[in-house]
Specification:
Structural class: mainly alpha
InterPro entries: DUF2975
Number of strands: 0
Strand content: under 5%
Organism: Actibacterium mucosum KCTC 23349
Largest sheet: none
Protein name: DUF2975 domain-containing protein
Helix content: over 70%
Number of domains: 1
Keywords: Membrane, Transmembrane, Transmembrane helix
Pfam families: DUF2975
């Protein structure tokens, strides 16, 4: 197995810790946002335009969607921390590293999909209790969402190619 330089392993260990702290911080923030939705309080940082008009069903659906989005972000951060841990051990070209890259890609793909669906879902949910004629549908797509989809595809491809390279290297070692 190829060993990483000591400096790279040390930086990977630091980034692993930062990723894990981000997981905890983001989980806490997500719970606060859901709490704000459920209690219909702004908490000083959550701007809910229709806070007083949203019914119980709409609030529950918005909270559920927020939790799903948070789960995708937390998964991406968690797998990133795992990858940095693998690098900190000095094992960059391993099956575990390749598979972890693919898991990061799946989490980012889920996050991108949710980001694309979010304005549509939110407008539909906020229109649940609206009177006929007052309902709306919002559809939008921006370059950031497309960029995230492209990045997820790129990371997935790198993971697949890395896994194939590890398999070929193992096969070549068998011939020697």
């Amino acid at each position: 197995m190829t060993q990483l330089p000591s400096r790279t392993r040390q930086l990977s260990a630091v980034f692993r810790v930062l990723s894990l702290v981000s997981v905890g911080g983001f989980a806490l923030f997500a719970l606060l946002v859901v709490f704000a939705l459920v209690t219909k309080s702004a908490l000083g940082f959550v701007a809910l335009e229709h806070r007083d008009e949203t019914g119980v069903l709409a609030t529950a659906l918005l909270a559920a969607f927020a939790l799903i989005g948070a789960a995708a972000t937390i998964a991406a951060l968690w797998y990133t921390a795992r990858l940095f841990g693998i690098y900190a051990k000095g094992e960059p070209l391993s099956v575990e590293a390749a598979d972890t890259l693919r898991l990061i890609a799946f989490a980012l793909l889920a996050k991108a999909g949710l980001a694309i669906l979010s304005p549509i879902y939110t407008s539909l949910v906020l229109s649940i209790d609206a009177l006929p004629g007052a309902r709306s549908l919002t559809v939008s797509l921006d370059m950031g969402q497309l960029g995230l989809l492209l990045a997820a595809g790129l990371i997935y491809t790198v993971g697949v190619v890395m896994r194939q390279a590890v398999d070929i290297a193992a096969e070549n070692r068998g011939f020697v």
